[in-house]
Specification:
heterotrimer; A mainly alpha (248); B mainly alpha (465); C alpha+beta (340); A: 248 residues; Four Helix Bundle (Hemerythrin (Met), subunit A); elongated; C: 340 residues; Immunoglobulin-like; 3 domains; five-stranded mixed beta sheet; 6 helices
Chain lengths: 248, 465, 340
């Protein structure tokens, strides 16, 4: 049955070449565009490369949404189960620091966007690096504030585990709340740290003058990531700090 | 432990990683996947995850099963839950990156003329699989991370003693782990779609129905997780909805089976080993899928839930389905991947042995399950003995069936006859390039003018059977 | 070797017949379709086998009519299974009013069972034939699952909440009791037996042996030992809500919500008193988590329930009619059919 040597696959089979005129392909498919030095060998042209990278980052961000989604789901379930307990627990978070951090992150998104724009318009390397470093400084400021807040939680025995102490009426709900608080903000902070690492690489690349209007995909894609991490915080801040907050 | 290794380290990555990474770029006429370095990274991550899991296995194992149900896994178990959970977490990223790579590749790297409806069905299946990988895997990742946090740091999330809800874990777990079943079976379905066409020398019957049923399975598959919780005390009405959707997801699978059968009609059928595996797949998957209806029926599930009936059912899907698909695909594309031919007689023999051994192993478990033998029992009342002995005997035969291919595949690498570009007389981009393909697959970018597996001129195509 | 080789489980409850009927229905349909597909494949593979190397198949594009047929017919068949299965599930889920109640506590690795008359058993459950029995089940540690194959009933036993299941045995005999959710190394040893007895034998069994306090009596004693009665006193001057006629009724909460006082609510109010504060009361009750075992919790619940049973409060429709089997009960003469 099996014809093991099908080079001479015989007979009347109509053999339409699936690949039409392989030989007739204009050898100029590539030659029409000058090769960009940044074009990787397996892409046909820069446009395909840019589209692939951007789509890749968007798809990655979708997985990130699902990743945080699991935590948000747990939060919703437990908030629904003990709304007053969560309200009481959330009142021990420092809304001022939270608000400061929100502002810091929004500013960092702005500087990030300006950094992308600088690369896109072939601005001088130091302008590009300037915006990126500004973004990093703001990101570091956010993490600094987070350290202050975490330290505060440690000193007040608000870290779940054997040392958790809760004076209020709902110790069980508060412990769950702080478990989720540390999981969610901790994971977010981890993303910020990774973001800082990425930005360091981008800054070095920008410093070497690798980005201009023909090639700025790395800046753009890292920017997408940075904005995403900001947006996660935009959801975390009201969920953890604001809902049920009252002045006291 | 068996479950953890099999599910996360074999069934989920087997077809996508071995066949998919090789074939996806070739089949769409690309030189490589969109992100070759990410692909390599995902391999390293997989190995790293494997190391953690191996550590758990060697240092005494993990006794929670692959489901890691809380609070057993977080509070009671004394085994190496942490390293197994970390292994699963890390491997999850490998899965995510592979899915991401496939999606971008299929979207952006298709050759000129390779429209969506000319894509080989293998590609459609991988596209659907990738959707599940990128949407589902992050959820299991964060879930096992929460388990690890609860176990290590005593954060209260799932343990009722810490105020948590153990059933929430089951929801999050099955939100990934039920779709994960489709990660295992969809690529196998893609393989079967290719093999059935190639060995009937005939284009598929109902192309778009097969293509869209893959997507339908991927999408609907995300809304059936609750059928694992019929006896966990979830609301009756939630159970009702999950049962309904579980029945719905059976329809696209049925469509596929009917279309494969119709494809053979008036074909030129050759019973080479890949086709034997494909027939084995269809038979076993049909049994596995239809017993899924038994489980989706709420009234019956109460009785058979967590019994050997379930064990038999999912082995029919995963071993009978995914592994038969994997072996079929391996036999079909082996000459292309290695450039060597293997012994046809031995491969037919092993296909037969696997089929017989498999049925002997797992069919008795349906009966044992309905009589009421629960899962995860190492000791059982005497009336189950005969069935268990049969099952063990079958497993030995099955093992022989798995070892034979290992031997003749190895042998073919050393002393196999050289394979031609197209040893099967098949159609498809992968068969037009040398075996094994050069590094960049195509020397010139191909231009595609028609769909896959066209054996006769389009003017001779018949609309209806 | 083949002396003990059943291929089908015993039918020993009113539910078993129902479950088996739909099981045979589904199996018949699946066998029918499996045979059609296997037959068609074998037939086509033989009839259209490749006769010479260059042969190709006829190019058939597809058929919309066929596609619709083989989508719609399976759809309606599965909907039939769904509807029937859901019906059986509802019957399995809803215990008939007046079912005799038994408490079950699962722990690694044993089943502790407590009858309302005070009989306690471990890994054994004695029940009368012909009378609906409702089990109220909790766990002390991890998730277990209470499974009686011959009765076709199963329910997970989950720490921190109560699940129930009910059955009505039809045939006297001894049946397997299994734990069906992996719960640790000795999971497969967490088995036992269910003894279904004629009502007269059951009465004899109840009166024999050493019965301890009934759960209600034990609960009442606990209620005093734990000094619950200093706050939960009769009349309106107590610091805690009055418990008489509480069970089964709706409770107004501080935050405006309402809740039905069922087993889960009472349990939560004992182990996590701050979770739901009754309107008009201060959240001053300390938690009793860790101070009372799961069994004692069930006894306290039984006591609180008994306070309603004696009162004139209308029992809630459906689930938990607080009927306490008394020792003086006459054996039920006719097996009562539950509503189907």
């Amino acid at each position: 049955m099996l014809d093991r040597h099908a080079e001479h696959f015989p007979g009347p089979i109509h053999q339409p070449p699936l690949v039409a005129n392989v030989d007739a392909i204009q050898p100029g498919v590539h030659a029409e565009h000058a090769y960009h030095p940044r074009l990787q060998h397996h892409f046909d042209d820069m446009e395909q490369q840019v589209e692939a990278s951007t789509l890749g980052m968007w798809v990655f961000l979708v997985t990130e949404i699902m990743f945080f989604g699991g935590l948000f789901m747990a939060y919703l379930v437990y908030r629904w189960a003990s709304p007053t307990g969560f309200q009481e627990a959330s009142n021990h978070l420092n809304v001022t620091w939270g608000a400061v951090n929100t502002a810091v992150l929004i500013c960092s998104s702005l500087t990030m966007a300006l950094g992308v724009r600088a690369a896109q318009t072939s601005a001088p390397a130091r302008t590009q690096v300037g915006w990126i470093v500004a973004t990093m400084v703001l990101g570091a400021a956010f993490l600094g504030v987070k350290v202050i807040e975490y330290t505060d939680k440690f000193t007040h025995h608000l870290v779940p585990g054997p040392n958790f102490v809760w004076e209020g009426q709902y110790p069980a709900a508060a412990e769950i709340f702080y478990s989720l608080y540390f999981c969610m903000t901790g994971l977010h902070a981890l993303h910020m740290i990774i973001g800082l690492g990425i930005m360091t690489v981008i800054a070095i690349m920008a410093w070497r003058g690798q980005f201009d209007s023909t090639y700025y995909t790395p800046v753009e894609v890292s920017g997408l990531y940075w904005h995403f991490v900001d947006i996660v915080w935009i959801f975390l801040f009201p969920l953890l700090y604001l809902i049920g907050y009252h002045y006291h | 432990m068996h479950g953890v290794v099999m599910v996360f380290f074999f069934l989920i990555p087997s077809i996508p990683a071995v066949l998919g990474n090789f074939l996806v770029p070739i089949m769409i006429g690309a030189k490589d996947l969109a992100f070759p370095r990410i692909n390599l990274l995902s391999w390293y991550i997989y190995v790293l995850g494997g190391v953690f899991t191996l550590f758990a296995a060697l240092s005494g194992g993990v006794d929670t099963g692959w489901t890691f149900y809380t609070p057993y896994s977080t509070a009671a178990s004394n085994s190496h839950v942490m390293s197994a959970a970390l292994g699963v977490f890390i491997t999850g990223f490998s899965s995510i990156l592979t899915g991401l790579n496939f999606i971008v590749t299929i979207h952006r790297m298709r050759a000129p003329g390779m429209t969506w409806f000319r894509l080989p069905l293998f590609i459609w299946a991988h596209y659907a699989t990738s959707l599940i990988m990128i949407l589902g895997t992050p959820v299991i990742a964060i879930t096992v991370l929460m388990v690890a946090a609860e176990r290590a740091l005593h954060l209260g999330i799932f343990d009722p003693a810490l105020g948590g809800d153990p059933v929430l874990f089951q929801h999050l777990f099955w939100f990934y782990s039920h779709p994960a079943v489709y990660i295992m079976i969809l690529p196998a379905m893609g393989v079967i779609s290719e093999i059935v066409q190639a060995f009937s020398r005939k284009n598929i019957f109902g192309y778009s129905f097969i293509a869209f049923s893959s997507l339908a399975i991927a999408v609907i598959g995300f809304f059936v997780w609750g059928h694992h919780l019929f006896v966990a005390g979830q609301s009756v009405y939630a159970g009702l909805i999950f049962s309904f959707i579980s029945f719905l997801v059976a329809i696209p699978s049925a469509i596929k089976v009917f279309n494969w059968t119709a494809t053979i009609y008036k074909g030129s059928v050759s019973l080479d080993s890949p086709m034997l595996y494909a027939f084995g797949f269809i038979g076993l998957f049909t049994i596995g899928g239809l017993t899924g209806l038994v489980l989706a029926t709420m009234g019956i599930d109460i009785h058979v839930h967590d019994t050997y009936f379930v064990v038999a059912h999912f082995h029919y899907i995963m071993v009978g389905g995914a592994i038969m698909g994997y072996l079929g695909g391996l036999h079909y594309w082996w000459p292309k991947m290695t450039g060597k031919l293997y012994s046809e007689a031995w491969s037919k023999f092993s296909a037969l042995i696997v089929f017989v051994g498999f049925n002997l192993t797992f069919f008795p478990q349906f009966i044992a399950g309905y009589i009421g033998m629960p899962r995860r029992y190492h000791a059982y009342p005497p009336e189950f003995q005969v069935l268990n002995v049969l099952s063990s005997a079958g497993a030995s035969i099955l093992a022989v069936g798995y070892i034979i291919p290992l031997i003749y595949f190895m042998y073919s690498l050393v002393a196999g006859e050289k394979a031609a570009n197209d040893p099967w007389g098949s159609r498809g981009l992968e068969w037009e390039i040398p075996s094994p393909p050069p590094t960049e697959n195509f020397t010139v970018t191909p231009v595609v003018t028609e769909g896959t597996h066209q054996y006769v001129h389009p003017s001779q195509e018949v609309g209806v059977a | 070797m083949f002396t003990n080789f059943p291929l089908f489980p015993q039918q020993a409850s009113v539910q078993a017949g129902q479950v088996d009927a739909i099981y045979f229905f589904v199996v018949a349909i699946t066998a029918f379709f499996s045979l059609i597909i296997a037959g068609a494949i074998a037939f086509f593979a033989a009839k259209y086998r490749r006769r010479h190397d260059a042969e190709v198949g006829v190019a058939i594009h597809g058929s919309l009519i066929l596609e619709i047929l083989w989508s719609v017919i399976p759809f309606f068949l599965t909907m039939g299974m769904f509807a029937w299965g859901a019906k059986v599930f509802f019957d399995l889920y809803r215990p008939p009013a007046g079912a005799m109640e038994i408490f079950v506590v699962g722990k690694q690795w044993m089943w502790k069972i407590q009858h309302m008359d005070g009989q306690r058993e471990i890994n054994e459950l004695h029940v009368p034939v012909g009378r609906p029995v409702k089990l109220i089940m909790g766990s002390e540690d991890v998730i277990h699952s209470f499974y009686i194959p011959a009765f076709r009933v199963k329910a997970d036993v989950i720490p921190g909440r109560y699940n129930t299941l009910w059955f009505e045995a039809t045939k006297p005999g001894t049946y397997h009791l299994f734990c069906a959710e992996y719960c640790g190394t000795k999971h497969s040893g967490m088995t036992g037996r269910v003894v279904a007895m004629d009502p007269a034998d059951y009465q004899a069994w109840l009166s024999g042996g050493s019965a301890s306090d009934s759960p209600v009596a034990a609960g009442e004693k606990l209620f005093q030992d734990l000094v619950c009665n200093t706050c939960h006193i009769q009349g309106s001057q107590g610091r805690g809500p009055v418990l008489t006629n509480l069970f089964g009724n709706t409770v107004e909460l501080q935050d405006g919500g309402r809740v039905t006082a069922d087993e889960a609510y009472i349990r939560e109010s004992i182990v996590n008193p701050q979770a739901k504060i009754v309107a008009g009361f201060q959240p001053i009750m300390p938690t009793f988590q860790g101070l009372v075992t799961e069994e004692q919790l069930l006894q306290l619940i039984a006591y609180v329930r008994s306070l309603s049973a004696q009162g004139t409060a209308p029992s809630p429709a459906g689930t938990a009619a607080p009927t306490m089997p008394q020792k003086s009960d006459q054996p039920v003469q006719e097996p009562r059919k539950p509503g189907r």
